[in-house]
């Protein structure tokens, strides 16, 4: 752990500081034969010999800026020491190894290969001149080859670390993009939910409010029902908005945080009754087939589709009657909303687009057009059941 800390501090200090530390370390290693006790028959450790040894170390300070030049200078100085000075020998050619390592790490392929071949030839000549011992020759070639290999290994390791860091950056960028997309999808979903709630509630309240004054003069009981429907519709819209916006609260543990569930298939009956009350079109509701629980997400989607379709009936169709049919088929759940109003030319704003998007989110389809016999308007949505072996995400409703 301490060695890693020192290495990290040295690297943080800058390349020049690292090169200086390497030179000092090599100098310390090459000083050892000059300070340890020596046998009388061995060459004497003199100051000129030590000075020439130090001269082979000094070029290492510039090894990063001129690796080839430094290698040539080191090998030339080492050859001079070996041939001209009768001083203590070194167990390893430290300076040459460091210089060749730097060339292998920092030079281009043609240059480092040429330098490697020339260095090997220089080692052969130097050993041959010094004594021509095969064991010394093989050892010298091995250590220089190891230094060259370590230099190339360092390049490979740096490339690998760079690739790992780049991969981590790419993954972080991808994660941020996915988070932004998820946030955009959630904002779109909330906006669609608020549009459905407000559009439906306001449309019903307008229709019922317009019918109220007429009913006051002709049928007071109907006027009372219309006003009751207005208040009920407003309260229901407030509850749904409070529940939806509560999801965005930072303090989910607040005492007034909503706890009621999202609308489901069970709420369609009450929705139909509210639309038909107080001056709205008469709406019929029928459920066919053997009911299969579709899951909370699909149930909420079907409720919103029926809500949007009935909102379009109230706002645009000018219809007197409408009908909602929920068919639980063996392969899919089919929702059909028809009316006897003005037909496709009545206009529907962005509501039909929202219906198609909701259906597509669950792998379903939505078709719109003239009603039976070309009269009125028809909305048909088909949402397939989740097949065995295919899970449906209960938060998004998507079949996967």
Provide tags for this entry.
400 residues; alpha+beta; five-stranded mixed beta sheet; 11 helices; 10% strand; disordered C terminus
Q: Could you provide a short overview of the structure?
A:
The protein has 400 residues and is α+β, with helices and mostly antiparallel strands.
Structural class of the secondary elements? alpha+beta
Beta-strand level of the residues, as a percent range? Answer: 5-15%
Average pLDDT reading: 77
Q: What is the number of E strands?
A: 5
Largest sheet descriptor? 5 strands, mixed
What sequence of helices (H) and strands (E) makes up the elements? HHHHHHHHHEHEEHEE
Oligomer: single chain
Distance between the termini: 48 Å
Global morphology: rod-shaped
User: Which radius of gyration do the C-alpha atoms yield?
Assistant: 43 Å
Helix content: 55-70%
Strand order of the largest sheet: 1-2-3-5-4
Overview of the molecule:
By secondary structure, the chain is of the alpha+beta class. The chain has eleven helices and five strands; from the N terminus they run αααααααααβαββαββ. A five-stranded mixed sheet has the order 1-2-3-5-4, with helices on one face. Strand 2 (321-328) and strand 3 (332-339) form a beta hairpin. Helix 6 (109-130) packs antiparallel against helix 7 (134-218). The longest helix has 85 residues, at 134-218. It is rod-shaped and about 135 Å long. The protein starts with a helix and ends in a 16-residue tail after the last strand. Residues 250-259 and 394-400 have low confidence and may be disordered.
């Amino acid at each position: 752990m301490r060695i890693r800390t020192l290495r990290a501090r040295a690297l943080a200090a800058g390349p020049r500081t690292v090169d200086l530390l390497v030179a000092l370390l090599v100098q310390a290693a090459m000083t050892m034969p000059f300070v340890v006790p020596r046998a009388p028959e061995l060459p004497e450790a003199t100051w000129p010999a030590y000075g020439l040894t130090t001269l082979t170390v000094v070029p290492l300070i510039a090894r990063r800026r001129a690796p080839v030049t430094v290698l040539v200078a080191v090998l030339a100085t080492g050859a001079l020491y070996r041939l001209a000075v009768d001083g203590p020998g070194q167990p390893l050619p430290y300076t040459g190894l460091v210089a060749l390592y730097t060339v292998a790490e920092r030079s281009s392929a043609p240059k480092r290969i040429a330098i490697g071949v020339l260095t090997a030839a220089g080692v052969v000549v130097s050993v041959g001149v010094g004594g021509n011992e095969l064991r010394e020759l093989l050892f010298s070639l091995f250590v220089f080859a190891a230094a060259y290999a370590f230099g190339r290994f360092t390049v490979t390791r740096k490339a690998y670390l760079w690739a790992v860091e780049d991969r981590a950056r790419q993954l972080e960028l991808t994660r941020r993009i996915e988070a932004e997309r998820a946030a955009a999808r959630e904002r779109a979903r909330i906006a669609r939910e608020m549009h459905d709630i407000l559009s439906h509630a306001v449309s019903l309240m307008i229709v019922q409010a317009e019918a109220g004054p007429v009913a006051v003069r002709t049928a007071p009981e109907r006027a009372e029902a219309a006003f009751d429907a207005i208040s009920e519709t407003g309260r229901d819209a407030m509850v749904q908005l409070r529940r939806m916006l509560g999801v965005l609260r930072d303090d989910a543990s607040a005492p007034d945080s909503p706890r009621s569930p999202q609308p489901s298939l069970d709420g369609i009956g009450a929705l139909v009754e509210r639309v038909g009350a107080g001056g709205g079109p008469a709406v019929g509701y029928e459920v066919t087939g053997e009911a299969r629980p579709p899951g909370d997400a699909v149930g909420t989607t079907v409720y919103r589709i029926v809500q949007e379709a009935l909102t379009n009936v109230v706002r645009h169709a000018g219809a007197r009657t409408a009908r909602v049919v929920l068919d639980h088929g063996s392969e899919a759940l089919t929702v059909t909303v028809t009316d006897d109003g003005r037909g496709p030319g009545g206009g529907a704003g962005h509501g039909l687009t929202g219906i198609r998007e909701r259906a597509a989110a669950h792998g379903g389809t939505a078709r719109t057009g003239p009603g039976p016999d070309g009269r009125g308007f028809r909305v048909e949505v088909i949402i397939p059941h989740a097949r065995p072996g295919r899970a449906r995400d209960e938060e998004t409703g998507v079949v996967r």
